[in-house]
């Protein structure tokens, strides 16, 4: 190894543990945040046991999958309701048009009917 590479290697060797420490702190902090966000869920699953990081991550995956399934069900239900409403609106528009059409037809027929009698006059 040459003299020019030694300071770089020494710096790298000193930095590596610090970088690893910061990385572990980030992981631990995130896992603690997950524990606090999903605390009730963890108590339901394993109330008396100490959870390892792997347990917390596995349970988080389960919770997220369940939420994803619920969201999918809600999305399907909402789409179904929207389709039903659209269909209902279309049927109402057709019924309104039919009613309007028959009312117009009746009015037109009355206007076209010949007047056979004299208008009524009270005098």
Structural class: mainly alpha
Tell me roughly what share of residues is in helical segments.
Answer: over 70%
Question: What series of H and E elements makes up the topology?
Answer: HHH
* Share in β-strands: under 5%
Distance N terminus to C terminus?
131 Å
Number of helices: 3
Which sheet architecture does the biggest sheet show? none
Average predicted local confidence, pLDDT: 77
Radius of gyration: 38 Å
Tell me the overall shape: elongated
Number of strands: 0
Q: Outline the low-pLDDT stretches.
A: none
Describe the protein's architecture and organization.
The termini are far apart. The chain is elongated, with a radius of gyration of 38 Å. Helix 1 (5-37) crosses helix 3. The model has no long low-confidence stretch (mean pLDDT 77). The protein has helices spanning 5-37, 39-45, 53-112. The protein has three helices and no strands. Helix content is 81%, strand content 0%. The protein has 123 residues and is mostly helical.
């Amino acid at each position: 190894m040459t003299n020019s590479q030694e300071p770089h290697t020494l710096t790298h060797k000193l930095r590596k543990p610090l970088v690893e420490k910061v990385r572990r702190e980030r992981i631990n902090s995130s896992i603690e945040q997950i524990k606090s966000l999903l605390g009730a869920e963890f108590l339901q699953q394993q109330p008396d046991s100490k959870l390892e990081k792997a347990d917390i991550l596995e349970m988080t995956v389960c919770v997220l999958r369940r939420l994803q399934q619920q969201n999918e069900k809600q999305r399907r239900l909402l789409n179904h309701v929207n389709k039903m409403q659209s269909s209902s609106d279309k049927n109402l528009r057709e019924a309104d048009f039919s009613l309007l059409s028959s009312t117009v037809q009746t009015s037109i027929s009355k206007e076209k009917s010949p007047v056979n009698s004299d208008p009524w006059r009270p005098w």
